[in-house]
Write a structure and sequence with these properties.
Chain lengths: 484, 646
């Protein structure tokens, strides 16, 4: 570390911009008229995210670039995942307005915190060192803790924030301990050096234990079983737009980080971690499929659904191959669209001036609001992985990758749980189309909700087989090249 | 001529498709006239073909499409028109056309005419496919097609549970026969490697000593094939054992009974055996079986017909009995006589059914003869027509039945084949019964005092031209069909006429049949007169006799009234055990075992487990943290013990 000069900022231009813009947004929020503060910051935050995405994309196409003394890396994979994170954040930001205003929590801090957590995610995605990994992780987590508790006058929201914070701190502690073990046994925190260190021979036990601790922390962030316990409570307690954000962007970022650590730092010792990933993948798929069966609250249902989907994504990671990484990237991209759409639909469930969250409230929706019912049905079919819809494609690629790696049992279990999970997705469709309506829902409020819902329903419709499949598969293949 | 034959077969299909698909928008009137018109054209063309084939001595093979060509198995959609087919074409299309017209009157009040006429046309098409086929598979197609149409038409009044039950019964009983037929087709292909008639018939002689080796036994191959085919014929033609569906089939509208369950479909079995005469001739055992089953059916059905009270059921048992005649004629190798009887029977039996239908119509849908009587006052023309039909059926001299039935009985007498003596006796006795129940029907229905409600007799439903025209045409047929054609079918010109369409090995029994001595020859006629006198005495002169007889011979009466307890026997032997097995498999096998351990068991287990695992989600932070630590500990332990590191 002899460089005293300013490091090369070009690869991290988007991050630098986000950091500066977040401060600027804070200023705008503080100095703007209290009535207009939220609206302004929301618009500017959206603009900031778009610019950040443009910066990310404009830096793409080059070879892998490291900066900050190897702490930070920019490659195809980071570009792909960062764009995904921005999409997730933009989507949930678009959903937020009406809900926050109605619940009188439309504070200007909301968009600012979102931008800050996106900054944390960017750093996570681009981290090439256990230290930058931890810094990015904490930056996004701290922002998320606050977001979860942003409705501080409501018990459920504060409870959600607190639970998330305490358990997050626990997982961070484990992770830090794991990092220290790894450093102790290998003498480095740099992924590239670590990769060289573990290559060729079986790693020391201490190193492996350290790796397990790190995996624990990462599994917590992606809410994989058995580190998922916070998810249902936080999803249910947090304000719905926040839940939408939780379910989309941080999942993508944490999954990207997961891939980067396992495939980057420990990519040459797949055997030592494959069993663990398989285990948490199976456990996640089982919990996601079975516990969801008995849920009646649609937000809790989506919590278990996201646990299950993370399980499927981890199937791709468990394959431990480039094809697996490609499948994970594709899966997460599809998952983000499905999740955002579903949460937009949940926000559209309103009657008598209040939000509804029970599945039974959707009864007979096809008779009162057919377009909404069709959109939700499309999303549910896609989540269930019915062929011809996008969700099927994601599952197909991860299972294919695992199959090619010889993980037949994993694929079989995945297929079985996927069949089981069909039940609760299809139950929603059944409730909407075959049950008698209790009363009509209110018309959808907010252009953002309408836009997100219709776009995601379109993206998940069979139409995208012709329009989106080729570019998306191409992009994820391109992203996976980083791990060749 | 090829085009003509195609038209004959496909016009009814066109009618069915038009009416079946667009019946509603096209309307009732159009549907009726369109289907009836097309079938009528078909009928006229059939007579042209009959003339050409029967008198100008042509035969035709019309290739339509190739159907299957797979390895050794290949056959086409093709029509083969020889004398046998031409006769069938005439019978099927003439009766069908007349029944179409008759139905316009009979079904005038029916709300879904397009459906009815569509079914009728569908039936006609299927029957034509059956009789024109040049291979077994296409014949089977037609065979199943007529079965389907019959099922649909018996169950036409689908709101009546009894009609649905009858339709299902007809279908299921026919399934038994069809299974035999299908096995027969397989056996044919197994033995001769072909399902095409031309090949089978040409090769039959080469296989006369062939054996099937099956389950450790050797069986004469041709006998096996013939018996299997005959089982199919028994089902379709309601022969003893598989006859139970026919009386119940009277649940269908009466024109249907006339068309399907008297004149055409039920004769398909006779047609099948006649068509396969070149094979049956090499299987004398099978022929003996045909003779005995036919004779038994003739006497059985006639005896049951003696005591039935439903006007349609009497005629139905009569049909069953007459089919028995045809079969034992086939059994004694008098194929020409069988087809001749088929031909004449179609006229007078359709006439009787349509006449009965008219009576039923006039009497406000009353079918019980005990509630009729004196109908001649309100329907004199029908009375006239029914009398002609009865004379023809009972074999009154120079009427149609006189020629055809007598030649059958004479053939049975003259033949030396196994079972022919039995067949002769049964045939003569059945002739007595036939005469008795036929006249009983006429007397109970038309003569004497009316036993119907006064209201009905005062306001009988009128019968219009749609009724008279078909009745009249059929009556003409019933009178002249025998006189004009007996020479062709069974007389001197028969060899010229058939030209091998039906074929016998050992000369021709009909020659001898024409020369049987006086008493044997006149026995049926004597029986006919005797039957008439008996009926006259019992139902006109001394009306107390039938009741007294029924009381004195109550056991016999109940036996006959309950149709020899066949239904009860089958119920006990097959239906109840089948239901018991079904119920066992359903409740214990499917619901308790498969569903219980399978879908239901899994789903309840899933719900059980999920409900419990859900309780882990307590909401307490320290529980959550505990689970995380446990997970971590488990993972570390796993890796340490499984040797992930060292």
């Amino acid at each position: 570390m002899t460089q005293a000069a300013i490091p090369n900022l070009a690869p991290a231009l988007a991050e630098v911009f986000l950091a500066v813009a977040a401060m600027a947004l804070l200023m705008i929020g503080v100095f703007a008229n209290a009535q207009k503060a939220f609206g302004r910051t929301q618009v500017f935050a959206a603009l900031t995210l778009v610019i950040a995405a443009v910066l990310v994309i404009s830096g793409a196409g080059g070879a892998r670039v490291e900066t900050f003394g190897g702490l930070f890396v920019s490659d195809n994979f980071s570009v792909f995942m960062k764009v995904l994170v921005v999409l997730g954040a933009l989507g949930s930001l678009a959903l937020a307005g009406p809900y926050l205003r109605e619940h009188k929590i439309a504070r200007f801090e909301f968009p600012v915190l979102m931008v800050l957590s996106v900054l944390g995610m960017f750093i996570m995605i681009s981290s090439n060192n256990l230290m930058s990994l931890y810094v990015g992780l904490e930056l996004q987590s701290l922002a998320l803790y606050v977001l979860a508790a942003i409705n501080r006058d409501r018990n459920r929201s504060t409870e959600a924030g607190l639970k998330y914070f305490v358990l997050g701190a626990l997982s961070s502690g484990m992770m830090l301990y794991g990092i220290s073990l790894i450093y102790g046994f290998s003498g480095t925190m740099d992924f590239d050096i670590l990769a060289g260190f573990v290559a060729g021979h079986a790693p020391a036990l201490g190193l492996v234990v350290g790796m397990v601790f790190v995996i624990t922390g990462l599994a917590f962030k992606v809410s994989a079983v058995p580190f998922h316990m916070w998810t249902p409570d936080v999803y249910e307690g947090a304000p719905t737009p926040v839940t939408a954000f939780f379910a989309a962007a941080p999942k993508a970022a944490a999954m990207a980080l997961f891939v980067r650590v396992m495939m980057g730092a420990f990519g040459d010792t797949v055997d030592s971690w494959q069993q663990i990933i398989i285990f948490i993948s199976i456990a996640s798929m089982l919990v996601g499929a079975f516990i969801a069966l008995v849920q009646t609250n649609i937000k809790r249902l989506m919590a278990y659904s996201s646990i299950g989907h993370i399980g499927y994504a981890l199937v791709g990671l468990a394959a431990g191959t480039t094809a697996g990484v490609e499948a994970v990237a594709l899966y997460i991209a599809i998952y983000v669209t499905m999740t955002l759409g579903t949460f937009a639909a949940i926000l559209a469930m309103r009657r008598d001036g209040g939000q509804l969250e029970e599945i039974g409230d959707l009864a007979g929706l096809s008779k009162t609001n057919l377009p909404l019912a069709v959109a939700i049905a499309t999303l549910m079919f896609s989540l269930a992985g019915i062929p011809l819809l996008f969700g099927f494609l994601g599952k197909y690629y991860v299972f294919l990758a695992a199959w090619q790696s010889g993980l037949v049992e994993l694929v079989v279990i995945g297929l079985v749980t996927s069949v089981v999970s069909c039940y609760y997705y299809l139950r929603i469709v059944k409730v909407m189309f075959f049950d008698e309506p209790d009363g009509a829902l209110e018309p959808i409020q907010g252009a953002g909700v309408r836009a997100v819902l219709s776009i995601s329903a379109l993206v998940n419709s069979p139409l995208s087989y012709f329009l989106l499949l080729a570019p998306l598969a191409g992009a994820s293949a391109w992203a996976a090249q980083s791990f060749l | 001529m090829d085009t003509l034959i195609k038209l004959i077969v496909f016009l009814p299909l066109l009618g069915f498709l038009t009416v079946g698909l667009f019946g509603r928008p096209l309307g009732n009137g159009f549907s009726q006239v369109w289907t009836s018109g097309l079938v009528s054209i078909s009928a006229i063309l059939s007579w042209v073909v009959f003339w050409d084939v029967g008198f100008a001595h042509n035969t035709y093979g019309v290739h339509v499409l190739s159907w299957v060509s797979s390895g050794d198995l290949s056959f086409n959609w093709a029509f083969q028109v020889d004398t046998l087919t031409a006769v069938m074409l005439v019978v099927v299309n003439s009766v069908s056309a007349l029944v179409h017209w008759y139905s316009m009157g009979y079904m005038a009040d029916d709300p879904s005419k397009p459906r009815f006429f569509g079914y009728l046309s569908l039936f006609t098409f299927a029957m034509l496919m059956l009789v024109t086929s040049d291979n077994l598979v296409q014949m089977f197609f037609g065979w199943e097609g007529v079965g389907l149409a019959s099922y649909l038409l018996i169950g036409y009044y689908y709101h009546k549970p009894s009609a649905n039950a009858a339709a299902i019964k007809a279908f299921v009983v026919n399934r038994v026969g069809d299974f035999g037929f299908a096995l027969g087709i397989y056996a044919c292909f197994l033995l001769m490697g072909s399902v095409e008639f031309s090949t089978i018939f040409a090769d039959a002689a080469n296989y006369k000593d062939a054996q099937f080796h099956f389950l450790g036994g050797d069986y004469h191959a041709l006998t096996v094939i013939c018996v299997l085919l005959f089982v199919g014929a028994m089902g379709k033609s309601a022969q003893l054992g598989l006859h139970t569906w026919l009386p119940d089939a009277m649940e269908g509208p009466t024109p249907v009974s006339a068309l399907i369950h008297a004149a055409t479909m039920v004769t398909a079995g006779v047609f099948l055996v006649a068509r396969f005469s070149p094979v049956f001739e090499f299987a004398p055992d099978a022929l003996a079986l045909v003779t005995i089953v036919g004779a038994a059916t003739a006497i059985f059905a006639a005896s049951v017909g003696l005591v039935q009270n439903d006007i349609k059921r009497v005629i139905a048992y009569s049909t069953c009995s007459q089919l028995g005649y045809m079969f034992f004629a086939l059994g004694v190798s008098a194929y020409g006589a069988a087809i001749f009887h088929l031909f004449t029977h179609a006229f007078f039996k359709a006439l009787l059914f349509l006449g009965a239908g008219t009576v039923i119509h006039v009497m406000h849908h009353e079918q019980d003869m005990r509630k009729m009587g004196g109908v001649r006052h309100v329907a004199p023309y029908t009375f006239f027509m029914m009398t002609i039909g009865t004379l023809a059926l009972t074999g009154f001299p120079f009427m149609a039945g006189f020629y055809s039935k007598d030649i059958i009985i004479e053939a049975a007498y003259a033949s030396h084949a196994y079972g022919s003596g039995f067949a002769y006796l049964m045939g003569v006795l059945a002739a007595l019964f036939t005469s008795f129940y036929s006249w009983r029907l006429v007397f109970m229905t038309f003569l004497g005092e009316s036993r119907a409600p006064a209201e009905v007799m005062k306001h009988p439903h009128g019968a219009n031209g749609f009724f008279w025209m078909p009745l009249t045409l059929l009556a003409i047929g019933a009178v002249v069909a025998g006189v004009l054609t007996h020479g062709l079918f069974t007389g001197e010109e028969r060899f010229e006429f058939w030209r091998g369409a039906v074929w016998t090995t050992q000369g021709d029994v009909l020659d001898e049949a024409h020369h049987v001595h006086g008493l044997a020859k006149w026995a049926p006629t004597v029986m006919m007169v005797l039957g008439f006198l008996l009926a006259y005495y019992m139902y006109i002169v001394n009306k107390a006799v039938p009741q007294q007889l029924a009381k004195t011979w109550d056991g016999l009466y109940a036996f006959l009234l309950n149709k020899w307890y066949f239904d009860e026997l089958y119920n006990f032997l097959f239906v109840k055990p089948a239901f018991a097995i079904g119920r066992f498999l359903w409740r214990r096998g499917d619901e308790q075992t498969i569903d219980g351990l399978g879908p239901n068991g899994v789903s309840s287990a899933v719900a059980f487990v999920a409900a419990r695992v859900r309780k882990v989600q307590t909401g307490y932070l320290y529980h959550y943290a505990f689970v995380m630590i446990i997970g971590l500990a488990a993972a570390v332990t796993w890796l340490m013990t499984s040797g992930g590191g060292h």
